[in-house]
Each structure stands twice: as structure tokens, then as C-alpha cells.
Write a structure and sequence with these properties.
single chain; about 325 residues; alpha/beta; Rossmann fold; 2 domains; 3-stranded antiparallel beta sheet; 14 strands; about 15% strand; binds glutamic acid
Length: about 325
């Protein structure tokens, strides 16, 4: 499975997706991920699905899911089929966890966040679990989370269609990671793997903030005997301080009033060189142009890009 290069034949089966977390309205950063995954799918005659990642209930904002879908619709980002909603899928996640338990791939962990922070070295994505409960729960301690054993040994490698080869030693850089949290919720890493398989996703195009999660996801796919899609991680939009544009940085919501202007900005961010007059096009004409001119080899092969620089160029 590979991503298209100029002149390469279009493959007959392509299924991409956009998987927003409804923690607030769509902002420019998530618009870029939506546009990139949509264009890659549509330019290859593929399907494009939407999945609402509302698993992390404490972070979910009431009304945000509907608001995101209304925005996608207003931007002409029309999806195929029904929207998958993670909060309705606990049974599927539980079945996956049961299977991992049968395989002896997971273990209960009693450690609190503080205990881990006190004794762990810091890894690629927070503290590396120091393995306290690996050989069994300490006397008198109750299980909180479920963790998956990571393999010692050689680095885990995969080829990202834009970012190139990614190499990560899961055991030393991430450590045994949580698949069911202490609050009983299933972890994103497990849910995304189960859902990508359920939706038969062949190609994942998303922000490079998730690049470091991908080895964990491929590892879980292999444990659960699920197919591994192809991955392409787009640069994420950051502010001058290098912070991802999002809720934390108070990124403004995209406005449903002038979709084409903002879509042109997303294209410029992705280096697709939209002509100045495209800003005056209607949605149909915009998408016709964008699909016909979409070029993966123009994408900036970086993990992040300051938005201010792109706007200044445009
Ligand atoms: N829900 C995740 C986010 O909004 C994206 C997950 C994914 O694309 O795999 O950051």
C-alpha cells in the first residue's frame, strides 16, 4: 500500500477518515487535517469517513460534535456513510481488551499518576512506566488501569508517506502503555485501532502530533491481528511559540460565513499553491480545483509549521 506520486495509477480501494475530538468547535488546525485527508481520499476516487472521538467524556464539550459536523457540511467536506461515534462503542473496545487478556498481553496496574511521575524517566509522551506492576500487583493494592506489555529489543519502524521512516523503541521511549484508564474509560490508542479496523480504513491522513502514537497503534494492530493502514502525517499549525493551535492556545473557531477563504488558507498551509482568484470561487469550483491540483509531493515534510509565516506568504 502506498500513497500516490505524480503519474502513479489510482488504486481502486481507498478509505480515509477524519476523526475529530469534540472538545470544542473546529479550528484551523483541525480544518487542515480534514482538508488533507479529504483531498487525498477524493483525488484517488476514495471514500472519506468521519468518526467522532468523544471517548474522553470529561473533555467532551456538549454540542461540539454537532457543531463540527455542521461546519464540515458548510465547508463542502461531505462524508460517506454514517458518522461513527466512539461513545457508543464500548462493547467493541471491551472485546478487544478481552482478547488481549487472553493473549496475556496486558496486566492490571495499581500505580497512581504521582507514583509513576516520582519514579519514571520521561519519555516521548510523558513518563515511561517503570514497570512496578509488570510482575503482578503489589500486596494489598487494587487494580486501576490496564497496561499492555511492550517488547524489549529492536526499535519499532514504519514508513510515513510524508515524514519518512519513523523509528521508536516502544519499551524505552514509551513504556508499557495504558489501554484502559483508571477511570474505566478505554484509552485513545486502543479505540483508534479498533475503530480504524471496523471502518476498514486503508489510509490514515492526520496531524503529525500523532506521529509518535503511531508505533503504539501498529503494535496494538499486530497484537489484535488487525490490518495496518498506510499513514501520512501532515504538518500541524503552530503559533510563533511553536504551540499547536487548539483549544489550549485559544485558537479561534473557523467561521461558517466564509468557508472558501479559510479553505484557501488551509491549501496554502499545505503548500498546494492556490491561485489568488480561487478565494472568489464558490464551494463547488473550489473543490474541483483542489481535487484536480492536489499533490502529495508538494506537502511540506515537516512536523509543524508556523501559521503566521504561511499567511504572510499568501
Ligand atoms: N481525535 C484525534 C484528535 O482530534 C485524532 C485521532 C486520529 O486521527 O487518529 O486529535
Amino acid at each position: 500500500m502506498s500513497f500516490n506520486k505524480p503519474g502513479e495509477n489510482i488504486i481502486s480501494r481507498y478509505r480515509g477518515r477524519f476523526a475529530p475530538s469534540p472538545t470544542g468547535p473546529l479550528h484551523f488546525g483541525s480544518l487542515v487535517a480534514a482538508v488533507g485527508s479529504f483531498l487525498e481520499a477524493r483525488s484517488r476516487g476514495g471514500e472519506w469517513l468521519v468518526r467522532m472521538e468523544d471517548l474522553d467524556l470529561p473533555r467532551t464539550v456538549p454540542g461540539a460534535a454537532d457543531d463540527i459536523l455542521r461546519t464540515l457540511d458548510a465547508f463542502g467536506l461531505y462524508w460517506d456513510g454514517e458518522v461513527m461515534v466512539q461513545s457508543t462503542r464500548n462493547e467493541a473496545y471491551r472485546a478487544a481488551l478481552d482478547e488481549m487478556e487472553k493473549l496475556g498481553a496486558v496486566y492490571p496496574c495499581a500505580c497512581t499518576r504521582k507514583e509513576i511521575a516520582d519514579s519514571a524517566i520521561s519519555g516521548i509522551d510523558g513518563p515511561v512506566y517503570p514497570g512496578i506492576c509488570r510482575a503482578g500487583l503489589p500486596e494489598g493494592r487494587a487494580p486501576r488501569a490496564m497496561r499492555v506489555y511492550t517488547d524489549p529489543g529492536s526499535p519499532f519502524r514504519f514508513d510515513d508517506a510524508l515524514q519518512g521512516r519513523v523509528s521508536q523503541n516502544l519499551e524505552t521511549e514509551v513504556g508499557d502503555f495504558v489501554v484502559r484508564r483508571a477511570d474505566g474509560l478505554f484509552a485513545y490508542q486502543l479505540a483508534v485501532v479498533v475503530d480504524d479496523a471496523e471502518q476498514a480504513i486503508t489510509h490514515v491522513v492526520r496531524g503529525a502530533d500523532l506521529l509518535d502514537s503511531t508505533p503504539r497503534q501498529i503494535y496494538l494492530q499486530q497484537l489484535l491481528s488487525l490490518p495496518t493502514p498506510a499513514y501520512l502525517h501532515l504538518p500541524v499549525a503552530v503559533n510563533e511559540r511553536g504551540e499547536k493551535l487548539g483549544k489550549q492556545t485559544l485558537a479561534p473557531a473557523v467561521s461558517r460565513v466564509n468557508p472558501v477563504t479559510q479553505l484557501c488558507e488551509a491549501l496554502a498551509f499545505l503548500n498546494q499553491a492556490p491561485p489568488e482568484e480561487l478565494k472568489d470561487a464558490d464551494l463547488d469550483a473550489f473543490w474541483k480545483w483542489a481535487i484536480a491540483h492536489w499533490r502529495v509531493d508538494r506537502l511540506p515534510a515537516v512536523r509543524s509549521r508556523p501559521l503566521s509565516r504561511v499567511k504572510a506568504l499568501g
